[in-house]
Please model this.
Amino acid sequence: MSRANHTVVIDDTTLRDGEQSAGVAFSVDEKLDIASRLDALGVPELEIGVPAMGEEECESIRAVVNSGVNARLLVWSRMCPDDLIACRHLGVQMVDLSIPISDQQIHNKLGKDRGWVLDAIARHVPQALDLGLEVCVGGEDASRADPEFLLRVAEAAQASGARRFRFADTVGIMEPFGVLARVRRLRAAVDLEIEMHAHDDLGLATANSLAAALAGATHLNTTVNGLGERAGNAPLEEVVLGLQQLYGFEVDIDLHDYLALSHRVETAAGRPLSWQKSLVGEGAFTHEAGLHVDGLLKDPLNYQGVNPAQLGRQHRLVLGKHSGTRAVMQAYSDLGLPLTRWEAVLMLAQVRAFVTLAKRPPAPHDLEDLWGQVFHHS
Model:
């Protein structure tokens, strides 16, 4: 196992990029609750809004600032004077000044050229510093930027007084080996903090975030449940456990109460989680197959890659088409109806017929009904 040699800071953007998911809109109370729960877990940085959206957004930002959370707070801004002015007097510590750096977006979105981008950085970063804000220069579409220009942008950010550079895989096209190479080059070229912002369009946001950490990134953007635009962002739960379990990074975030936060964001966003969503989905630690259940009952480590207790969860055994007699005997023993192995064989046939028809595992009352039908009890 590779071991970490530096600290990685989680900068969670559930309340900014997570809320930018199509159709999602958090109320002020929901933002306050989510921020409080993230803070209680020990998440050290939160990106909490976009001031240029207007006074209502600014009021929600101030509400989070005044709530007393311990996390450092950031807002997001385009690199233009009007947006920057909206960031004044909010009480946050840092602003992410975002600007496109791929030729695709520089030419076809802004109608500008590379020189204009470098001039904008040189102008606007000092203006933000004059407002008392620390600055992260956000390299929008950095994954499609010319590699040499990417370095020039990072160098310009450092020369202008920025503290951090955000490498944004805006359209989610990166893969871990490419991220490793890009971030290593950035790390060697500048002394800035480097933050990875990964999108999950190819299902690689977590892998790309971990690769960035291995390459020397100091900060990683995440969202609860991976909420975010299109296919979402790097999920907080996956990134934190991946850093800790796979690479030994010391990330001082306690996920034991994470499931409550996951459900809160799921409800507030109106985005139901997949049953098989890693770590937080209902089925993440649910077992049916006979060989797996038998192995788990003998020793959980036989089929445990992640300890569910790290997330305040536990293994759940359900009966179904692929169950074996050991699981049936365990389920009926838990109901106070111990079975012999031969009786378990009879009941297993009933269970398989039930799930084929009902398309769900039998609940305890279903098991009792099936037992009564087989053994002629009411």
In short: The radius of gyration is 25 Å. The beta strands are 9-12, 45-47, 72-78, 94-100, 134-140, 164-169, 193-198, 219-222, 286-287, 316-317. Residues 15 and 31 are 7 Å apart (CA to CA).
